[in-house]
């Protein structure tokens, strides 16, 4: 994982675990360590896909990505996941 | 990061953590593609990611339950990635990398413990263990 400007560049394992547990219906459901790591990867892909898609949706003379671009690419992004 | 938001209620801290990480990942794309993301767009991606986690969590729980388990495994995570073949390939690859790095760690531990037990090679150690078992059964 690259370090740019002090950013972690990915989701922390324990953040992922907490995020998932928030929505489990059964109190006994757990996530094993490897699955946590793999989910962190999946989420990283998700965010990058959203960011890159939004970037591609912008007009060529603009260099700023706003919610307008995001709205255009959202349907396909969600279908892929 | 640990102490940040420690006074928030249950749902807020993970949300803040997501926002932070999304910000980091968007920054990478910004540098890579020489663009800028507005604060609103980063917040929107962050919100979408947080909501997508709810869908992921519920699916994962159902997959595990279907397999009669209470613990979510990498097999369940792979099922999440099934809709896009390139995504599935990527996740499967990551899963294999995890598995092989686990194997490496186990090998290291095994070698360390056999070294501690008097420099026996794996073959000798196995033979010695079999001998012990036989004597126990006698």
Descriptive account of the structure:
Chain B: Belongs to the TAF9 family. CENP-S/MHF1 subfamily. Chain B: Residues 96-138 are annotated as: Disordered. Chain B: Keywords: Cell cycle, Cell division, Centromere, Chromosome, DNA damage, DNA repair, DNA-binding, Kinetochore, Mitosis, Nucleus. Chain B: Pfam families: CENP-S. The complex is a heterodimer of chains A (81) and B (138). In chain A, 59% of the residues lie in helices and 5% in strands. Chain A is mostly helical. Chain B has 138 residues and is mainly α. Chain B is 76% helix and 3% strand. The relative contact order of chain B is 0.05. The model of chain B is unreliable at 1-9 and 132-138 (pLDDT under 50). The chains are: A mainly alpha (81), B mainly alpha (138). At the A-B interface, helix 1, strand 1, helix 2, strand 2 and helix 3 of A face helix 1, strand 1, helix 2, strand 2 and helix 3 of B. Strand 1 (30-31) of chain A pairs parallel with strand 2 of chain B, so a sheet runs across the interface.
What are the key terms here?
heterodimer; A: 81 residues; mainly alpha; 2 strands; B: 138 residues; 5 helices; extended; disordered C terminus; chromosome (chain B)
How much helical structure, as a percent, in the residues of chain A? 55-70%
Chain-averaged pLDDT of chain A: 85
Tell me the β content of chain B.
under 5%
Largest sheet of chain A: none
The share of residues in helices of chain B is: over 70%
SS element count, helices of chain B: 5
For the largest interface, the chains and their residue counts are:
A-B, 55 and 60 residues
The separation of the N and C termini of chain B measures 59 Å
Biggest pleated sheet of chain B: none
């Amino acid at each position: 994982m690259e370090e740019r400007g002090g950013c972690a560049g990915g989701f922390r394992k324990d953040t992922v675990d907490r995020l998932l547990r928030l929505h489990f219906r059964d109190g006994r459901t757990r996530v094993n360590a490897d699955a946590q790591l793999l989910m962190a990867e999946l989420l990283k892909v998700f965010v990058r896909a959203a960011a890159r898609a939004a970037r591609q949706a912008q007009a060529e003379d603009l260099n700023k990505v706003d919610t307008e671009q995001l709205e255009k690419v959202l349907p396909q992004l969600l279908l892929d996941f | 990061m640990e102490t940040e938001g420690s006074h928030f209620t249950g749902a807020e801290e993970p949300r803040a953590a997501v926002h932070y990480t999304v910000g980091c990942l968007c920054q990478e794309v910004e540098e890579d593609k020489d663009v800028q993301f507005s604060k609103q767009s980063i917040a929107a991606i962050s919100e979408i990611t947080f909501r997508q986690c709810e869908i992921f969590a519920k699916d994962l729980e159902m997959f595990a339950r279907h397999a009669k388990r209470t613990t979510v495994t990498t097999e369940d995570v792979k099922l999440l990635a099934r809709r896009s073949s390139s995504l599935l390939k990527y996740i499967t690859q990551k899963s294999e990398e995890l598995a092989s790095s686990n194997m490496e760690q186990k090998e290291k531990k095994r070698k360390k413990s056999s070294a501690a037990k008097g420099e026996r090679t794996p073959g000798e150690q196995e033979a010695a263990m079999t001998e012990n078992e036989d004597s126990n059964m006698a």
